Amino acid sequence: MAAPLSMLESNYEADKLTYEIFSILENKFLFGQDDTQHKQPALQLEHLKSGKHVTGKVRVLSIDGGGATDGLLAAKSLVHLESHLQQKSNNPNARIANYFDVVAGSGAGGVLAALLFTAGKDGGPMFSAKEALKFLVDNRRKISKSAPEGIFRRFYGSSEKVFAKTFGELSLKDTLKAVLVPCYDVNSGGPFVFSRADALEIDGYDFMIKDVCAATSASRLVDVKSVDRKTKITAFGGDVAMNNPTAAAITHVLNNKQEFPFCNGVEDLLVVSLGNGEAFTAGVAGNSTPLPAALVKIAGDGVADMVDQAVSMAFGECGSDYVRIQANSIVGANHGNSKVGKKDLLPGVDEMLRMKSIESVLFKGKKLVEDSNLDKLELFSGKLIKEEERRKTSILPTVVLKQAGSPRTSSATTLSTVSSN
């Protein structure tokens, strides 16, 4: 897997985090090697786990960067998923955050993660899926802006004002579940992952949600400091660092034994990965040379597909516990045009959801399957409901999320490189 990644080195330094993630996927999942160095001897309950279903499955939601739809495909997917959860649970107030333990989002996906998993005034999620979709539609032009030919240029724009108005002074410590949001830190020349677990462990890793959103969606350089002002990063969008954060989310769960004590492999996971259409045609006309911004999108789409392929291979016989929602190439390139109006883009998103889905096959590339993306979302909602019901009668905890104010354990699994002043 190192060979395909090396193709990106002409534009950016080798992505150390991606190498680490893929190494773990290969060693722990694909070839059966088990790294036991992160297991905590203090956890003596493991012998009580008589079967893989006794302690249940950790539920992971991953949301790609903006892609061809500026995040609207993922947002619409979440609207349908939340609707199915409400119907099957007979609870009209059910929210996405109630049925997932971990969320990872990049770019527009990171904004969605913040909207759906940040606590509101009533202690529940700040936004429903429908409200989050409306937020993206209303603010699409402010959040998703194509970078100019000179990509790394410092910028302070209207998106920061939108995020400040929405989230105020809330920080990563105010999120409801495990949250992971990547960006690219120009200072360190590598990815930086905003993490709830790290924020609760180390003051220098707690950031304002408004700054997290600004960093992961940035199309130009944005300076971001931690709440205590001790950590500073110069951020570029998460689409560059990690367009598909699924592997990062899985790695975080497997290495965070403090919060996920019994999760040892893919058999202990339920994963939904939401794509946003592939934008590789944007900025490419005929045989002309692609603009730098288009090359960034091409690279991001390629790495996103690689992550999907690797995760699909990792799940193997547990394949039904991993779902990838993504448009196939049938949809025209116009849906990726940043000039397309919001009213014109949404019908295209609906078309993507109705079309037959694509799946990665072990060592055989991709195939078109009979189930549509909508069918897959409905089927997976049943798995999420089943896991939620199982937990109501379970003795052993599947997830033990650390809360603000709890004693620190130095067990946070930082996946980031960081620069401090």
From TrEMBL:
Pfam families noted in UniProt: Patatin (PF01734)
EC number: 3.1.1.-
Class of enzymatic activity (EC top level): hydrolase
Any GO molecular function: hydrolase activity
Alphabetical UniProt keywords: Hydrolase, Lipid degradation, Lipid metabolism
GO biological process terms on file: lipid catabolic process
SUPFAM superfamilies found in the cross-reference section: FabD/lysophospholipase-like (SSF52151)
Function field: Lipolytic acyl hydrolase (LAH).
Family label: Belongs to the patatin family.
Entry text on domains: The nitrogen atoms of the two glycine residues in the GGXR motif define the oxyanion hole, and stabilize the oxyanion that forms during the nucleophilic attack by the catalytic serine during substrate cleavage.
PANTHER family linked: OS03G0784100 PROTEIN (PTHR32241:SF12), PATATIN-LIKE PROTEIN 6 (PTHR32241)
Protein name: Patatin
Source organism of this protein record: Daucus carota subsp. sativus (Carrot)
